[in-house]
Amino acid sequence: MIPSDPKKVTAICFANIDVPKMHTLEMARQQGAYQFLPTVLNTFSSEHIVSEMKISGLRGRGGAGFPTGLKWSFVPKNTGKPTYLLCNADEGEPGTFKDRDLMRFDPHLLIEGMIMAGFALGVKDAYIYIRGEFIHEAKRLNDAISEAYAANLLGDNILGSSYSMHLTVHRGAGAYICGEETALIESLEGRPGRPRFKPPFPAVEGFFRCPTVVNNVETLATVPAILEHGGEWHKAIGTPNNAGMKIFSVSGNVKKAGNYEVPLGTTMRSLIEDYAGGLQNGSVPKVIIPGGSSTPWLLAEHYDVPLTYDDLASAGSMLGSGAVIIIDETADLIALTRRLAHFYAHESCGQCTPCREGTGWLERILTRIESGQGKQEDIRTLEDAAKHMAGRTICALADGAAAPILSLLEHFPELVEQAIAEKTS
Amino acid sequence: MSDVQFSPQRLDEILTLVKRYPKAQSAILPVLHMAMEDFGHLSIPTQQLVADTLGVRLMMVREVVTFYTMYREKPCGRNLLEVCTNAGCMLNGADELLAKLCEKLKIQPGETTDDDMFSVIEVECLGACGGAPIVQINGDYHENVTEHHLDDVIAKGRTHDPI
Ligand SMILES: Cc1cc2nc3c(=O)[nH]c(=O)nc-3n(C[C@H](O)[C@H](O)[C@H](O)COP(=O)(O)O)c2cc1C
Ligand code: SF4
Ligand code: FES
User: Fold this and answer.
1) H/E run at residue B45
2) Is the pLDDT of residue A2 over 90?
3) Least crowded by CB within 10 Å, which of A58, A130, A278, B21?
4) Torsion angle of alpha carbons B85, B88, B90, B93, nearest 10°?
């Protein structure tokens, strides 16, 4: 269901985002936080929760869109090992800035979601892996966690129930790759963030080789609403295979950049015009990067695409993390692509040769073209190198690095040819 | 034994933290953050201190220090200005802003002024593109930064005021 006025749908993650002092336990409680928690802890079974999560249709909000209930159901039972819950708050995909707002304005929503998820999965120790630059957000979380401990919402026998869980904030230190779930696990083990081969998937073998669930901040913050109102309630929001609300981080050449939570199925045009204040210049974007810098570009002809995992895939891209970067006529697409190539070259962890060598090579060629030193054969080389990288590596960073370059070559070959023709030498 | 030492309060804090993890090695990243706070940068003796405190080999600590960009092995200026020039910020004038900043301070990105007052580095997306362009100044996010704002920051920084 997408109501005719999408603003009418009650927000889920951002329901209380504008409430002053929402980060304090007192205000959070006044707004209803933790009210339903005793019911969950005392009357819900783990199976019931996982089943409601499956019914809800919630898909992971961190990038891959994997169904959350299904992921939880993969955790093996009775292994004799502890199960861990890790919240992915690394938020490094260029364009993404939603989890930061959730954590600094409504940290208790995330904490409550983690308690409920932890309870369903039988978790005793949970961690929030937050990017190192978010110093204030980490402090906010730590303050909220202290308040929660003092109120017996965390720790031993939560609210007098038989469930106990500890929650720890763990700061990263400036490495985009640690957002990839297995790199995050390596990092949490005190090592460089180098992704692991999958399988085994973390649900089976993760943190210190124990079953581990990794979920994004927004995913976990959606859990309390689903358990309180039921899976069917959530399923009815959005479109059938793309249920729920989603926070879109809109940036680039728009008048009102910011985070907007809308039902899945809202069109891109509506997101930009009704929420983000429209474009800075012109009336339609030249390029739309719909799901973070690693997702293939869309053009003006896609402006009316409904924002769902499926529709964006049909359009040739991805919903990703919901980071919409709008680019207008004034932007220099070659410079932008070179800048993104630099990002991926800088952030490659280096363990796969196609990624380590390829990202550096792509950056060098684009830098050359941008500075007027390009050669005719550079176009072929760029395309070959980008295609060769994608899909041949341990993690998806390499695919993300290839995406902007392949998009530039596919949609704007004349720009590249022109830049090469206008040699400065 | 290394020459640098953590304060007794810091050691208590580390001890409590280590208990939160199945193995002490998990605390390498957080303890390195604490060491950065306490000592400004991570010299080899400081890295040795972290290794000894956690009972891990120095090599493990070194591997982490060299992998993650936030850990600095060398001191930086009294004020650290980290300018994001990734997509969202670039589309909102970050390159021009960085060039202006460097011109005002007469340094290149990655350098420190002669009086050790300012260091400027170019950084990747800070996860706050809604307020582009973003400059992280001594850890604080400054949003929608203008040239005028930079003038203020430089003036304050020069007079030893906290920015
Ligand atoms: C290079 C790379 C970077 C990623 N960065 C993030 C991130 O910053 N935050 C995040 O939640 N997921 C990120 N992911 C996706 C995670 O691997 C994982 O799919 C996600 O955390 C699972 O949570 P979800 O199912 O709740 O979405 C990244 C993936 C890759 C390949
Ligand atoms: S694809 Fe790149 S970032 Fe991913 S594991 Fe391989 S080298 Fe590392
Ligand atoms: S691009 Fe600068 S904060 Fe994201």
Assistant:
1) helix B44-54
2) no
3) A278
4) -110
Q: Is residue B43 part of a domain?
A: yes
Residue A239 to residue A260: CA distance in whole angstroms? 18
Closest C-alpha to A136, from B142, B120, B143, B141: B141
Percent of chain A whose pLDDT exceeds 90: 95
Q: Are residues B142 and B84 in the same domain?
A: yes
Say if residue B114 is in the same domain as residue B45.
no
pLDDT at A9 exceeding the cut of 90 = no
- Which token pair is B104? 């005002």
Query: Domains in chain A, please, with CATH?
Result: 7-236 (3.40.50.11540), 247-327 (3.10.20.600), 333-424 (1.20.1440.230)
Provide the token pair at A91: 């938020």
What is the rounded CA–CA span in Å between residue A178 and residue A347?
10
Q: Are residues B84 and B150 in the same domain?
A: yes
Q: Where are the alpha helices (DSSP H) in A154-276?
A: 181-188, 217-229, 231-235, 268-270
Indicate if B86 and B125 belong to the same structural domain.
yes
Whether B15 and B47 map to the same domain: the answer is yes
Which numbered atom of ligand 1 lies nearest the CA of A177?
A: 1
Measure A280 CA to ligand 1 centroid, in angstroms: 30
Average pLDDT for A249-264: 98
Backbone angles phi, psi at A401, to 5 degrees: -70, -35
> Does residue B41 sit within a domain?
yes
Q: Quick check: CB of A253 below 6 Å from ligand 1?
A: no
Yes or no, beta carbons of B136 and A132 under 8 Å apart: no
Q: What distance in angstroms lies between residue A85's CA and the mean position of ligand 1's atoms?
A: 14
At B113, which CATH number?
A: 3.40.30.10
In the reported structure, the alpha carbon of residue A319 is separated from the centroid of ligand 2 by a whole-number distance in angstroms of 22
Of the ligands numbered here, which is closest to the C-alpha atom of A325?
3
pLDDT in tens, chain B (163 residues): 557 999 999 999 999 999 999 999 999 999 999 999 999 999 999 999 999 999 999 999 999 999 999 999 999 999 999 999 999 999 999 999 999 999 999 999 999 999 999 999 999 999 999 999 999 999 999 999 999 999 999 999 988 777 7
**Among candidate residues B42, B67, B92, the one where a domain is terminated:** B67
Residues B61 and B93 grouped into a single domain: no
Mean pLDDT across the stretch A166-192?
98
What local confidence, expressed as pLDDT, does residue A6 receive? 46
Listed residues B43, B67, B91: the one ending a domain: B67
Domain of B92, in residue numbers: 79-158
The per-residue pLDDT for range A13-59, each reduced to its tens digit, is 999 999 999 999 999 999 999 999 999 999 999 999 999 999 999 99
A59 is written with which tokens? 């898909």
- Candidates B25, B42, B81, B86, partner chain A, best to mutate (most A CBs within 10 A): B86
Q: Do B130 and A133 touch (CB under 8 A)?
A: no
For the whole model, what pTM was predicted?
0.97
**B96 and B154 housed in the same domain:** yes
The partner residue sitting opposite A134, judged by closest CB among B22, B29, B127, is B127
Is there a contact between A416 and A409 (Cβ–Cβ < 8 Å)?
yes
Domain count of chain B?
A: 2
Residue of A nearest to B37 (CA): A135
Of all ligands present, the nearest one to the C-alpha of A347 is 2
Using only C-alpha atoms, what is the Rg of chain B? 18
